[in-house]
Write the structure tokens for this entry.
Amino acid sequence: MNEEQLLLAGKMYNPGDAELRKIKLKTHNLCIRYNQILEDETEERQTIIQDIFKTVGEASFFQGPIYIHYGTHTTIGKQFFANFNFTVQDDAEVFIGDNCSFGPNVTIVTPIHPLVASERLGVNVPGAEEPKKCYAKPVKIGNNCWFGANVTVCPGVTIGNDVVIGAGSVVTKDIPDNVFAAGVPCKVIREITEADSVFLKEELF
């Protein structure tokens, strides 16, 4: 297995591998280009977004700036919205469903580094030519999710459908469908019900 195959299989890999660095360099440069383009230059922005990610659904919008690591490991559904400073460190695969909206500074991370300090310098794997330094776990986010500002989603987390994550939360464990969750670490606060409808807030109308 090459390093990218090891990475996607959840095995120890070397992020400094030449082929992995080539993918990251291309994506990092595309992000820089995207972040420098005027917001109303929509065709060029859309072309770059399609070049960065594995898949992006229709009617999606990235406010920018964006900071994406590989891009080719991330699948995004339709009608996605990301506010300022959307960051995805997609060493492992990242899946984001349809109709999701993210506030400013949302970060998704997948790589995991060893806790033992000496192992962060590299782990000698039998049969491998070079030490392996980390591993990664995928992140999956369902449909119709809203994340407040400064939410961080950690490696290996699955978030269900129709979920709201409160601002500043650090999501370290799975979150089920149709709940409001918040905190550090993020925990389910309660189920979302019809009592949460904006139509019950008379002051809004």
User: Anything to note?
Assistant: The longest strand covers residues 187-191. The mean pLDDT is 96. DSSP finds three helices and 19 strands in the chain.
